[in-house]
From TrEMBL, chain A:
Gene Ontology BP annotations: tetrahydrofolate metabolic process
Highest taxon, organism lineage: Bacteria
GO MF assignments: sarcosine oxidase activity
InterPro entries given in the database record: SoxD, SoxD_sf
The name this protein goes by in its record: Sarcosine oxidase subunit delta
Stretches assigned to coiled coil: none
Automatic annotation (TrEMBL), chain B:
Subcellular location: Cytoplasm
GO BP, sorted A to Z: tetrahydrofolate metabolic process
Cited PANTHER family: FAD-DEPENDENT OXIDOREDUCTASE DOMAIN-CONTAINING PROTEIN 1 (PTHR13847:SF287), SARCOSINE DEHYDROGENASE-RELATED (PTHR13847)
Family of the protein in this entry: Belongs to the SoxB family.
Taxonomic lineage: Bacteria, Pseudomonadati, Pseudomonadota, Alphaproteobacteria, Rhodobacterales
Keywords, in A-Z order: Cytoplasm, FAD, Flavoprotein, FMN, Nucleotide-binding, Oxidoreductase
UniProt-listed InterPro entries: FAD-dep_OxRdtase, FAD/NAD-bd_sf, Rhodanese-like_dom, SoxB
Cofactor dependency: FMN; FAD
The protein's name in its UniProt record: Sarcosine oxidase subunit beta
Organism field: Aliiruegeria haliotis
UniProtKB/TrEMBL annotation, chain C:
Provenance organism: Aliiruegeria haliotis
Protein name according to UniProt: Sarcosine oxidase subunit alpha
Top-level division of the source organism's lineage: Bacteria
Boundaries of every FAD/NAD(P)-binding domain copy: 170-421
Domain GCVT N-terminal as annotated: residue spans: 618-888
Presence of the UniProt keyword Disulfide bond in the record: no
Keyword Oxidoreductase attached: yes
UniProtKB/TrEMBL annotation, chain D:
Taxonomic lineage from the root: Bacteria, Pseudomonadati, Pseudomonadota, Alphaproteobacteria, Rhodobacterales
Organism of derivation: Aliiruegeria haliotis
Entries under SUPFAM superfamilies matching the protein: Folate-binding domain
Gene3D superfamilies: Heterotetrameric sarcosine oxidase (3.30.70.1520), Probable tRNA modification gtpase trme, domain 1 (3.30.1360.120)
Superkingdom to which the source organism belongs: Bacteria
Name of the protein described by the UniProt record: Sarcosine oxidase subunit gamma
Amino acid sequence: MLILQCPYCGIQCDETELAPGGQAHLKRHGPGSSDEDFEAYLFDRDNPMGVHFERWRHANGCGKWFLAARCTTTLEVFGTYSAQTTEPPAEIADRIRARRPNWEGRT
Amino acid sequence: MRRYSAFAIAREALRHHTGWNRAWRSRDPKKHYKVIVIGAGGHGLATAYYLGKNYGIRDIAVLEKGWLGGGNTGRNTTIIRSNYLQDPSAAIYEKSRSLYETFSQDVNYNAMFSPRGVLMLAQTHHEVRGYQRTAHANALQGVETEFVGPERVKEIVPIINIDGPRYPVLGALWQPRGGTARHDAVAWGYARACSGMGMDIIQKCEVTGVRSDGGTVTGVTTTKGDIACDKLAIVVAGHSGHLAGMAGFRLPIESVALQALVSEPIKPCMDCVVMANTVHGYMSQSDKGEMVIGGGADGYNNYTQRGSFHHVEETVRALVETFPMISRLKMMRQWGGIVDMTGDRSPIISKTPLGNTFINCGWGTGGFKSIPGSGWAMAELVAKGEPGPLAAEFGLDRFREGRFIDESVAAGVAH
Amino acid sequence: MSHRLPQGGRLVNRDAPVGFTFDSKRMQGLEGDTLASALLANGQGIVNRSYKYHRPRGILASGPEEPNALVGLGQGKRFEPDQRATTTELFDGLSAMSQNAWPSLGFDAMAVNQWFASMMPAGFYYKTFIWPRSFWMHIYEPVIREAAASGLPPKEEDCDTYEHFHAFVDLLIVGGGIAGLQAALTAGKSGATVMLVEQAAHWGGRAPVDGAEIEGQPAEVWINETLQTLGTMKNVRLRTRCMGAGVYDHGYALAYERLTDHAPEAEGPRHRLWKIRARQIVTATGAIERPLSFAGNDLPGVMLASAVRDYVVNFGVAPGHRTVIVTNNDDAYRTALTLIDAGLEVPVVIDVRDRVNSPLAREVSRRGVAVETGAAVMKVKGKKGVEGVMLCRANGTGGAGAPVECDSVAMSGGWSPVVHLWSHCGGKLTWSDENAHFHPDPNRAPTGAEGEVFVRTAGIASGAMGTGSVLQDASAAGAAAARAAGFTAKSAAARAADAEEAPMKPVWVMPEQALPELRSKMFLDFQNDVKVSDVQLAAQEGYESVELTKRYTTLGMANDQGKLSNINGLAILAGSLGAEIPQVGTTTFRPPYQPISFGSIAGEARGEIFQPLRRTPMHEWHEANGAYWEPVGHWRRPYCYQQPGETIEQAVQREVRTTRASLGLLDASTLGKLVVKGPDAGRFLDMLYTNKMSTLKPGRCRYGLMCNENGFLSDDGVVARIDEDTFLCHTTSGGADRIHGWMEDWLQCEWWDWKVYVANVTEQCGQIAVVGPNARKVLERLGGMDVSRQALPFMGWADGELAGTPVRIYRISFSGELSYEIAVPAGRARALWDKLFAAGVEFGATAYGTEALHIMRAEKGFIMIGDETDGTVIPQDLGLDWAISKKKDDYLGKRAQQRSFMTSPDRWKLVGLETLDGSVLPDGAYALGEGDNANGQRNTIGRVTSSYHSPTLGRGIAMGLVKHGPDRMGEVIRFGKTDGGTIEAKIVSPVFYDPDGEKQDV
Amino acid sequence: MSDAMTALNGASMQGPVAAVREAALQGMVLLRGDLADETLAAVVKDLTGCDLPGQREMVQAGNTAVAWMSPDELLLLVPYEEAGTTVASLSQALEGVYHLAVDVSDARALFRISGEGAREVLARLCPVDLSPAAFGPGEMRRSRLAQVPAAFWIDETGTISLVCFRSVAGYAFGALSAAAESGPVNFL
């Protein structure tokens, strides 16, 4: 039963106040994109045993989407951050490296 | 290999069962095998078994990082059915179901397949129409199903509450030859049979790398040393993405936790499997008497084999409403398994970008019921290098073409 | 023979007798008894029969680890199977039934199984019952199912209620023994909020029974003082009858409070399930004594030494007159002393250790009890109860053995810490050779959201054995947890000494060289009848992993989940494999620690509040007017309104006819309504809909389609442009929340620089569709605004008033008739609905439900999301190309629709279908193609998506998707029926009624 | 506005230590916009007499109040009759300022939970720390009530006000009543 802090309203959310939204930082490919890129956009997913970036919506709360960096094997949370970004912020990356020295960064 | 029978037991009883030999041989890996199967779960062992039985390939090693059948094969709710909507699904699940019918005799190991019937409740008008459609499809697919009314439902499962205040039972899709089997025994039976054919089943042997040359697989590196092979079959359920990474390709898969639980054992009170998809819960009773219960999967990637309790809560809530008599029964044990979910929630049985390397994964919540059929189709793919009719539609290429096999379109969710 | 002692019993009130029945036999116990102690006091030796061999079984333990004494408790609406006698508090009128015995406990027919025991070794059922095939399900399995399990299924519906409670604390401490109390005391002083839970009805755990001394006084004194101190602390909460059931990720824990099990008639919920979020969890869960493995160790009268002590000290009950004690450690000597003090006989203490010279042993000898060292029990004599034991040397095969008369045996194989809660969330264990048990490894503790350690153990649960060490360890754990939770705490433990004890000697089989004869009578798992020989067989056959052994033999898989059998079992396994116990490892510990009721998990969600039920403002009217309900999501919508004597079909046909002929009213309030506003609103909707919405003129409406990124149709509805930068989007019923989330997703996560705000105003307005040739007339009767064709043309909308009520009216039609959809503030919707009906009387107005709605839209060839679409259908399949803008270079789903499979000419496309004889096509039927596919399945070329009897046309009409359908107008194709037959239908236009749309645009 | 009705017509129940009743019609206006914008702050102050609330805060002034719902969303509580005019004046005053104001008075149901057991009634149904230390007057908390979204606040007298969607008013009242039926837990 996860607890994630909503970066928008500051609440330490119980998992049941949230709705999971899958992998974060996907780049949308629309008309004009190659079949490969479009397939990757819809279906190719990171599925790491370890650090993962994902989307959550504070559905039973302020209604905002936010992003989280989490470990899929220990469920440790490295931090949550705004959805209005294409890359994890530096402080999140630093916190991950501090706790997972051999993390190779996002694949 | 000594045959199992009542007479064998009687004979052994006289000498305190000291004469039984190992169900499967244990040995260190050879340097080379014709085929290496990674994963000694039901699907991996079935693949090896049918490679031997249908194609005479017996120079096979089945590598298992943990213990035999220790993944989802030993953690599921043992439901076997084939009342699927789409042709490709119905074909492979029905093949599987029919192989289960004769499993115990084929491998001389009693897996207790028990076609006691599977009942999928329709509790909204939309579900009624969905299941009527499935019944029509099944009629043309050679899958024996029938849409039955509430009275018949009550006949089949007297403990069910067909006129609950919220979701009265409007009918159900009934598959009389669906049922359950003893999950561990499926893995054990295949393992014993494979061993009997001279294959090596090597436990506590973790694959740490896939070796290739010029785009074609040459072998694997493991915690028990390097092993060469001509062909490689990856059949590792929840860890498929991980293994695919080693082989240098990616999969349209996410791994999530799926939970199940059992009640304390009680005397028989329910003779078939009941699935209530509107309210998200399903239940059957094991031969030991436990009510075996499952529900929905977590919505986030998770490798812990622990799920979130609110899913258990939602499931139990639904079943207490559907079967009021279980309210005073007690949950004895809950657990989780890792299931891999594909983009269309249907499995992948496919060639891969790496030559002579094949993958079988993405069974999601349908893993156990498909074991024999999956093994049968995978064996054909590995042996011939090309998919046969059963596997043809389950290739990786379908995601690029948008040619999905979507079962969620029938009112039911797959379990 | 067990009986009540003339004095003693710290937990019972001798002045308060309590009447109860067991197997319908009237018995008497005392207030404070457990059902188990009361049964013993009444001399009830046999309480159950075992699963497999139906051997007679008696009470073995005194707590939750009890494997034998499971009874059916209560009756009727309060009947509950598998209730543990040892954790059931006695109450007046309690009625218990033994399980698994027929006709009676004393004589059980199935006991013949024992004669065939040798035919039923571990996993025997995997090796037989194979032929003939059909026999498994029809002959063998039913017998096995009947024989297995013991509890009876409840027959009636539970009459009790249950509830949940969410608690947030700094520390959750599980276990109210001296360790838990000490930990709570230390942590409490730090100011941290502490919740201390104890599964039993009383505090203090074993210490008082074991005669522990704290601060120089009997433990009981310290326990009471500590409880008083804790009681005065504002930040500490104490709860008894509340079991720590499970530990989950991120500090989540479940506690199971049994509020009225001890007083079933009391007011209020029966169980309360606590959902706790704790910064830190301390498990002070104590330890469980292990049985010893000797032949006949399962006979009634053989009991754990600590349990014997409990019954004497706590309840003043003697398990026997003459008790032989067999042990591998010092603790059992306390039982000897307790029995002697109670005036009972102890003929001999049988100790496997070669020499014992400890204060406890010396004291026992001083009291004149023979102590046989290096000795063992070869077997227990007796059929339905202990009649004596055969004494033999511990090493060796046992030989003949020397008889010792006795009527009960107290055994002790050493103590195993209760590590369940520690292990639930990933805590690892380490093996102690000194105590021959697994205990938590503090270096591999469960970690929480921050990667921090969040579970600690206290006292014996940590592996600390003496009273002094227990208090030290517990205080340290309490302090450490408080500090980890952000408080300043320092450990200060109560003073106590560790009793001087000689080392224990792990012995897993007794005697060590016992032959198969004996080994097949040594029980490991009492409930599942798993014996030493079974585990050895599993190893021999290659089921070497502890998980495989467990599954093959069913060791530890019964109600007690192996609390007594696990360690003994895997020690035997290790022995058989020639491995060390730590190498073999343990099976996984899973929640709950003890079984918890399903009722408590469901909580308040029963009956009417099982799930949210969404009601429209007109719900009561529908209810009062014969509505036959249809669940749509969580909404309830009338499927139709049955008038007296009408069938559902008749009602539906009437509603359609009346509406088409004159006037019908539909409660359309469930339609989703989303306000989309901002400078970029038009641009945004152009991306969400396949059509172009930015060109829509204020005051006008347009039907739009939404697809997901996979190209599939996901929702549809009418969009009205309110002003330059404001739109109102209608969604399908129940689609509002989904589409609202969908819009927010794109605005927040993809186009966050676009200036668009969305608000879900679905429930602000009730919506009433006034439909039929007389629709305009009835609105004019109400008056207030101009609803003429000129003022309010088809596909237009206007704000105004009807009969003094502010409304917004949309001229849109889903039926093909003249139609006004009136949006009115929800609080006033019912009033307007009533007014419309009053005014509609002269036109014979009818209310109509969802089925009439469906029929009328089908007559018009309008698609329905969920009927014509199923998540695999793209707009192009439905001939909706006119609603797909060619001008836009992008919209959600556009790229997907360019993939090869989506552009294939062979996709099934929407057509109308008519049977030749006017009958109704079966809904969901498939159109037959030529021959079979490679898997032997009949080829299909299409399917029916909607099918109705049209009252307007007086025959069956259907819509369907057919391969090349639109090019095959007039062709006749065949559909399969579930009975194997076929039915023919002609391909026609999907628009069956008023193809030119004259009726709606008047 | 004579014929306007609440969802449950003022249903109420009295439990051993807490009472639940549906409140009378309450004007509610949802305002989305840039909360850092001075004009917006000024307009809100001018209309309601309330300063802009900070994160999760609720500011009260006589019979009006303003609650922080999300970083770009406020809920204005005004007399039911004034909701319409409030929206109108907002739109007028914020002409040219990027915002959204809608009347949601009829889209909601409002309950009052009173009595010493009020906090424990909610604690049975919401995954929220309702201890006085964690939740007090001046905070607007959004969460779930059993299976539906809800928002609630507590006043100085310990009475809790809870808002949910109108369509689930019956469910919410049922769940609150079930919780209020049972006695004190003596935990909070």
